[in-house]
Amino acid sequence: MTAHHTDSASNLPQAHYPYKVMAIYKFAALPDCEALKTPLAQFCCNQGIKGTLILAPEGINGTVAGSAEAIDALAEFLFVSGPFGTRLDGAETKYSFAEEAPFLRMKVRLKPEIVTLRAPEADPSKQVGTYVEPENWNALIERNDVVLVDTRNDYEVGLGTFQRALDPKTASFVEFKDYVAKHLDPARDKKVAMFCTGGIRCEKASSYLLSQGFEEVFHLKGGILRYLEVTPKEESRFAGECFVFDERVSVGHGLELGNATLCRACRHPLTEADRAHKDFTEGLSCPYCADDTAKHKAAAERQHQMDLAKKRGTAHLGDAVKEIAARAKKEKIARAEESRARNGES
């Protein structure tokens, strides 16, 4: 690992867990992102790494997991020896650990943006707000002249957020522009502080606010994850758990595994209170999709297939399922071709 990407995660209490998790993003000029996709995917697959990485002309974003050796090798590939050269140097990179595999397969995706806002005027490579280190965050957000905004989506905010933070109640980040137009005023809100999971949304959001005439814009460096990693629990101003986009669902202070689960019908994160609700049925429904019969039907079928797989002693998730499905499809095609051949069909 390079000197630019030192790994403090080895001090975490979960450091003995078998899976090392890397969350990374950087706004960097990658006009050749399409050519970078295949070598990056091949490297990750060869190392047994799983997760999702997004490449776009504006940079890289994603989270992956594998053995500690594999993730360290990926860091070397991204920052030193691979086709990216030094373009990802200084990337916001966070490491944590998981007891069970947090991802089921490896995906490298090409997208127009690494975080979708659809606002060309928001260009973090040209201007961003002021970074605030986690140790200075509490003092900033406790000031009366600072407006604190959570830039995450409503289902994420529902699991946990900072005290006094405004919730834009967005279903997607694209809606953040409308929230700003309706609820924030550069003439009134002279100082705006923002935060998100890992820092990436805030970089683009802060750039957008500056483009709209806001004078002072601050954002939490490294996001909630970095704050939870380094801030003593007794000093924390974050209430609840932080939603993460993998099978862990949520983490708490010290990046310990949280208590949230996912509804298998609608994928909404669920708290203990949600699971105690009358509309919650394990694997089938939750309070957030109680009226969506289509989702319930799909979830019921999925649960049925999982139960059958369990009885047969076969896998039902991840790459094993993918391999089984591919083999079944191949066998089906072969049987169809044999049938056509027997019947003299062309």
From TrEMBL:
Kindly list the biological process annotations in GO that this record carries. Answer: tRNA modification
InterPro entries, per database record: Rhodanese-like_dom (IPR001763), Rhodanese-like_dom_sf (IPR036873), TrhO (IPR020936), TRHO_N (IPR040503)
UniProt entry keywords in alphabetical sequence:
Oxidoreductase, tRNA processing
> What GO MF terms are annotated?
oxidoreductase activity, acting on paired donors, with incorporation or reduction of molecular oxygen
- Catalytic activity, per the record? uridine(34) in tRNA + AH2 + O2 = 5-hydroxyuridine(34) in tRNA + A + H2O
The catalytic activity of this protein is classed by the Enzyme Commission as 1.14.-.-
Q: Which CDD domains match?
A: RHOD_YceA
tRNA processing as UniProt keyword:
yes
Q: Check the record and name the Pfam families matching this protein.
A: Rhodanese (PF00581), UPF0176_N (PF17773)
Specify the domain of life of the species encoding this protein: Bacteria
Where in the numbering of this chain does the Rhodanese domain appear? 142-236
> Which family is it part of?
Belongs to the TrhO family.
Biological role stated in the UniProt entry: Catalyzes oxygen-dependent 5-hydroxyuridine (ho5U) modification at position 34 in tRNAs.
| Protein's name in the database | tRNA uridine(34) hydroxylase
Annotated organism of origin:
Devosia crocina
